[in-house]
Amino acid sequence: MSSVIWWIRRDLRLNDNSALQAAVASDQAVIPVFILDPKLINSQNASEKRLGFLWAGLDQLNQDLGARGSRLIIRNGPPAAALKKLMLEEDAKLIFAEADYSPYARKRDADVALQLPLHLEGRTSISHPEAVLKSNGKPYAVYSPYMRAWKALHKPEEWLPRPAPAQIHSPKGIHSEPIPLAPIMMPDSYFKPGEVAARERLAAFTIGLEPEIYHYVEGRNRMDLNATAMISPYLRFGMLSAREAAWAAFQAQQSAPDTQGRKGAETWLNELIWREFYISILYNHPEVLGQSFRPEFRDIPWRNDADDYAAWCKGCTGYPIVDAAMRQLTQSGWMHNRARMIVASFLVKDLLIDWRWGQRLFMQQLIDGDPAANNGGWQWTAGTGTDAAPYFRIFNPTLQSKKYDPQGIFIRKWIPELSQMPQKYIHTPWELPSDKQSEIGCIIGKDYPAPIIEHSFARQRSLHTYKLSKDFSGQ
């Protein structure tokens, strides 16, 4: 029996997988292969935590394939060379893969397509990045009109996920490299790898008598609550399809018992559309990974103080909400979205450190690190990107802390030094009288750092710096 290759990249799933379905529909034996690409594994943006999640996900996928009479083949090396070798070994006729739109993925696939019969089926996003355009044929640079056009383009019924094949017939005896072992222990309390875990988490968030999605509007910014879906790592590696997530949002909206529930489901769908928007931005403007989208902010005179940056990275800025979020990131590989905005604003606006430093650090730490979403988030907060927050929007970390972690639960979880801090001072521990600091065993400046900068001063400095850059550019 002749064979075809299912080249797995960011689609570690069997359900709702167009590339797999096309391979099975060819009526030939299917060879599921994942290639360990040295350019990605050894990239300066590679993350041990993300790789660990990927390796564990590959192991789960191999088990899922085994239940259907197949197995995962691992090969190592440049994709074109590895695929060519496999095709010659097994006399394979075609390669099926899901389209990916990052700059590297597009270049890689173009290189492979010049040499081999590559067929791209489906995609990592719901819409093709060129599908949602303005009337003049140009891509959107502002989210709200993009979101409206995106919704007008799609019928929810199109998102109904297609079931996994019952059987996948694969050739026997194909050589496979071993699946790499996770380089670090994965935080099981956060993300259990694999498609089954992804779908279970989606169902828990969207289905039931009173699922969290119905309270998403009120709870999504609270760092002390489990009020978000936390499916971003699964979307990152395609352990869950974006279509299935959108379908779940639509179904929840249809089943909602009241206006609040419908609004919650709609708001969560809008967050999925933000993902689509940022994929479109990076596809149409790949230069944004290295420079500000807005020309007037390409020459900001950043301070880039190495000591301030190190304090931020280690979660030792003296601002509890910032430090708790950064410690959550370095310990777990994940960070709440509101926390991402707070720490980004602090790095860029309070410390005047180039947003690209933060973008790189996030990619090196996040399990869900995705070039498009990560860049979009950083440029939004920095005020330098498409649909960006105005440059004069500068988060006050203390006020953000009081609003989105009112009891200090999130802070105490990640900063044990502050576990005994009185509630009145949990957001501003430097204000606790020194004798009380001694009583609880937390001396500010010794056991926990004093603030490395005064926020009101930093705010004025940032406003002045951004305005100078804007005025100098003539924008």
Describe this entry's structure for a reader.
Helices cover 48% and strands 7% of the residues. It is α/β, with parallel strands linked by helices. Strands 3-2-1-4-5 form a 5-stranded parallel beta sheet, with helices on both faces. Helix 11 packs across helix 16 and helix 15 runs antiparallel to helix 16.
Structural class: alpha/beta
Residue stretches low in confidence (pLDDT < 50, at least 5 long) are none
Corresponding CATH superfamily of the largest domain: DNA Cyclobutane Dipyrimidine Photolyase, subunit A, domain 3
What level of helicity do the residues show?
A: 40-55%
Give the CATH level 1 class of the largest domain. Mainly Alpha
Which descriptor suits the 3D outline? Answer: globular
Q: From the alpha carbons, calculate the radius of gyration and give it in angstroms.
A: 24 Å
Topology:
Layout: E1 3-8, H1 18-25, E2 29-36, H2 38-41, H3 48-66, E3 73-76, H4 79-90, E4 92-99, H5 103-115, E5 118-123, H6 143-153, H7 195-206, H8 216-219, H9 232-236, H10 242-255, H11 259-284, H12 306-314, H13 320-332, H14 337-350, H15 355-365, H16 371-382, H17 397-404, H18 409-414, H19 434-440, H20 455-473
Parallel strand pairs: 1-2, 1-4, 2-3, 4-5
Annotation keywords:
3 domains; DNA Cyclobutane Dipyrimidine Photolyase, subunit A, domain 3; 20 helices; Rossmann fold; globular; five-stranded parallel β-sheet; alpha/beta; about 475 residues; Serine Threonine Protein Phosphatase 5, Tetratricopeptide repeat
